[in-house]
Amino acid sequence: MNNSGVTVGLDIGTTSIKVVIAQTAGNQFNVIGAGSAPSRGLRRGVIVDIDTTAAAIREAIDQAQEKANIKITDVVVGVPANQVEIINVNGLVSIANQNKRITYQDVQNVAQQALSNGLPADRDVIELVAEEFVVDGFDGIKDPHEMIGVRLEMHGVAYVGPSKILDNTRMAIQKAGLNLQEFILSPLALGTTILNDGEQDFGTVLIDLGGGQTSAAVIHDRKLKYTFVDIEGGDSVTKDISTVLGTSYINAERIKRDYGFADPLQTDQDNDFPVEVIGEVVPKQFDEKYLSEIIAARLEQMFTRIFDHLQQVNALNMPGGFVLTGGNAALPKMVDFAKQLLGDNVRLFVPDQIGLRHPSYTRALAYSVFASRENMVQQVIKQTIMNRREITPNPEPTPSEAPQQESYDSYQYVDDATVAPREGWFGKIRQKINNLFNED
Question: What are phi and psi of 57, to 5 degrees?
Answer without folding.
Answer: -60, -45
